[in-house]
Structures
1.
Amino acid sequence: MITALQIEGLSIRRGERTLFRNLAIRLEAGAALALTGANGSGKTSLLRAIAGLLPPAAGEIRFEGPADRDAARHDDLHLLGHADGLKGGQTAGEELRFQAAWLGGGERFVGDAIARLALEPLLDLEVRRLSAGQRRRLALARLITAPRSLWLLDEPMAPLDTARRALLADMMTEHLATGGLIIAAVHDPLPVAALTLEIGA
Amino acid sequence: MSVMGALLRREMALGWGRGGGPLPALAFYAAITVLLPLAGGSDTDKLAAVAPGVAWMALALASLLSLERLFERDFEDGGLDLLMTGPLPLELICAVKCLAQWITTGVPLALAAPVAAIMLGAPISLSPLVFVCALAGALAFAFVGGIGAALAIGARRGGLLVAAIVLPLFAPPVIFGGAALYASQLGSGGASGLLLLLGWTAAAVALAPLAMAAACRNAVG
């Protein structure tokens, strides 16, 4: 379990451009953080840096709780953005089960995810036949099938309809209530109580 | 272990689905085998002499065909992000991907290799050696080729880059395997060449994942 995330003096560069410098964040278990800022300000890059995919130019990212940083990144966080890693030629059911197996969930959670996100009618369809919203629901299923502490979400609400936005809000509320952490890059306000950080301000 | 099994199953399913699975490589292989006698003349003695070598070299080229997309699509659709937030180290992930590539493309090519050699007039007694060389060689080609595919992530005309990076690395196994086949054809036994080939394959399987993982990290970051 990640109990807190501590970021100190973080700078991120993409090529020649410095997106932001000297960023400091402390996020405790049960808290959510909304990242706002203009397009290209570095919200996605920050999420990717926390997930360990993007090496920061300077500064430190620490996870309190897990034995080390690799344990946190390989076992206890979700990164979910536009590029969701779902394969067009696979069926939704195959992808759902792979996400569960790969990210450390179990078969028992798969049923929960299917029920909550109403995935039953999609299971036999190829992923490439899904609409953007359906595809996002399938990707969001990994939050349920593999319980992990820290959710890094990039525009999670964007393609969802009103009912599913409410559902995602419920999922977030429950996650926070059980000691989870959420960092989300958003343009609209998050549907849960959250701290706000404007990137590139 | 079950995690690794899940990844291998998925990679194999993707490998079969990716552009027709082993079929393009097999078709390419068949084309070389059929065209060689047309281009090189129908002198059967001459053909029989080069048959094992040609079957072997064509295998190396056919292996190249399906390599380009090994990492590229995962990079584009976020698959690499998903894999990198999973429990296995990236080196192991890369190894599993190459293993799946070998099973879906390399093994079918290895099965076709003795047939191609016989069609070109190689003695049937040589078939087991051709098959073993092809099986081991295809494994080395998959792992060494993976390095090229990982380095070419994000590059336009990646296929060209993969070929340029990988062909020099394909040379040693082609030489060892070719030597084994030639020596065996002359009746002096192909053991030394085969052992060198197996050694190269073992080294490729052990070392290539390190290079692939480094290239993937660099591409993603």
Note: Residues 2-220 of chain B form one domain.
2.
Amino acid sequence: MTTQSSDGWKQIVRNGLIGGAIVVLLSLVGMVVAFGQRYIVSGLFTMGHVLMLAPLLLLAYTTARRADGASVGSRLWLGGVSGLIGGAVVAVLVLIGHVVNLRAVLVSASPDLYQMLRFGVPLPLGALIPPLAGLLAGVAGGALALIPPRYRNVALQPILILLLLGLLRDLLVTMMLNWGVVGYLFRWMFAAAGMSVIGAIFVLVVFGGLAFWRAWRTPAVQRQRSPRQQMVIRVVSIVVIIVVLVFLPRILGTFFSEILDNVGLFVLMGLGLNIVVGLAGLLDMGYVAFYAIGAYVMGVLTSPELGFFSLPYWLALPVALVGAMLAGVLLGLPVLKMRGDYLAIVTLGFGEIVRLVVGSDWLRPFLGGSQGIQLIAQPRIGPILLNTQQELYYLILIGCLLAAFIAWRLKDSRVGRAWMAVREDEDVAQAMGINTVTTKLMAFAMGALFAGLSGTIFAAKLQSTYPHSFNVLVSINVLSLVIIGGMGSMPGVVVGALVLMGLPELLREFAEFRYLVYGALLVVMMLIRPEGLWPEARRKLELREAREA
Amino acid sequence: MLRKWLQRITLTDVVVWGIGIAIAIAVVWGSLITLGLSPASPYEFPGKYTWTQWADLIIRGLALGGIYALIALGYTLVYGILRMINFAHSEVFMSGPFTAAFVAIALASSGFLNRYPLPSLLLITLVSAVVSMTIAVLLERIAYRPLRTAPRLVPLITAIGASYFLQYTFRGLYGSGVTAYPTFAALEGAWTLGPLQIGKTQVVIIVSALLMMLLLYYITQRTKMGKAMRAVSEDKEVAALMGVDVDRVIVATFAIGGASAGVAGVLYALMFPVVNFYMGFYPGIKAFTAAVLGGIGNVPGAWLGAMILGLLESIGPNLFLDGLGIPAPYQLKDAIAFIILVFILIFRPTGILGERITQAKV
């Protein structure tokens, strides 16, 4: 053994224990059991198993990688020991659960959980199963550390793609079933739940081969494309994206279109918050207030139920948008001098005040109180009433494209650069002659505008609004998707919305844990990749410079 | 002089002051009507409510204030040292009493609780304090320590993430339902003091909060660790040069704040005998408001701010909202706390007892 110093051992034991603790936590919050029904490979392997083994594998990988100068065998051995320790922790949980009824306190500590953790093996022998599984996962982690970095993707990519395909089975099969040859291929690759065994092997081989080919071929310097080529590529890809976007609801069908609509509404809000948080650096946690204001103005102006107005959607829309923008300026004025933490709390307070006031009996005659407003008008274009999910999708799409265009043009304009200057250093920005007051108010107003638009569509989509739809969790959702996507990056907003809003809708069992996962993602993201999944080019550069400096 | 002053007023000031003055007028006007002191009022002094009702509300307010003070301490100590708002403190507060609820239920079902109320209460409080303390220390170790030198927005986002992670972890662990705390037979009923009826629970809460506050004041002002904490909050680098172990001091700060939040949690559960995973949000925000109101970073300030906030929250809806003819005013009691928060941060971000904090720190 080359790393037998006590420090090395401490590290191994520590990583093993951390891995075990993560698995125990995932088990006790109920994620392992909930995902135990979600087959990746039909009859063989569920997402629950992934959750049980992945933490051990990852920590074994880190252990083995940290061991400098260790030989091949000893790295495998180190990973294995770390995994074994983690598995032993899990085994302790199984044994305790056998003796004590943990379920009186911990609701998820069910017999099903122990069954899964033992891989179905009955107890006297079953207690040995978690450490054994941990050992195997650990050795696999150690082996992963042995692969040279360039080829590591060859091992990882096919597995990740397999996971993704297995998880998204329902969506993919519904989408592709009627596509002739592709539908036939899909029927062969997928089982009733997850992928079929043959399909899984096929995916592993094909994508493994592809990844290997790419790793083997890629030269150190990337090929340079001429500006003309780049231009063509960009135009073609934009056209393809637009065509796909236009036909998407037809491909997806009613159920998935509704999910798509929800994602779209959050993209719209995300684009707005991206201006406030990402570009101007103002952490707004009460963003839901503007969404609520948009929805409520639309409700008050169009619903005949309250008896004030019953305008059509298109006439009420400008009023709602102006109302939301005014609210944005009104919130912006008092908080102009605040920064960071205080701003976050005050905006949080503002969001809650709007919700509490709207839901109170005081304003019931005007806003409907906790019963909300019903009979909200839906948009009508000529003789067509947009009332199905597929039709409303186009409204949302147009809204998103418009918002994206505005945001994109603003970003590179004088105002956009002023926002970024304020984000980087307010005092310096002011010294350079930027009017910080109008700059910040502009950011708040633009953010509020997009959220208000999203709110009006939301109200028209449901034909009703209730105060409880506008709680602080909506703000957290939007904030998470902006930050996880990459602050200041517009493609990041779309990626963030697809991942954070789309996935929980597709995987129903995930919905229960979405805020747990968002919270963990925010923390992990800030710790290891503060620039986000799809970072804005300039910000990435800044962060990299800061790291190198 | 006047001219210079007029020149310095901006549109922002006009709007902000306008809103502020409008709210102040509404509060005064509503109070006068409720108290029967205004010509428009249909009541005679003491107005719509009797003296005993007012006294009830005041005692309730003091009890609430005591609880908020103990939570606010965690915000204030951490802010004093790290200059960051521990957004997840409300979840630290929730974790203790939520866990201790199961101890309390076990004690109640075995009959121990009603035979020995005081030891049971102490045991429950101890469990709650230890759990909250553990969560606070883990939070510091895992989420905050690696980011101590990061830009300001980064730890704040981490704190928000940690807050939701903890909330939904406890939801997963203990279930999403509401868990009822067993009632203490010994704490039911009230003591009669002349014309007043003072609830025993309220008295216990006020007294325990006071004792706890004195203990914490003693720790921060008289012990060696307290001295180290004040040194670190003054200047981290210099304190480190003087031989203070900064990491240890920060951990101790989180531990003290966490323990005090755990105690507050049990007191809160005595007052509102149900716990759930969401219970931390409003007390957390209000305690933060209290800490800011008193001057963040200042321990006696947290106490003062919490008392004012508790009283305002308890009396406010009846005092000024009722007078303005708003139906069901108690629905807006949380909104009152938020409005107070917003206005302190606008008009006096340093709080009542706070020292001058430079713009950069605000």
Note: Chain A touches chain B through 58 residues (CB under 8 Å).
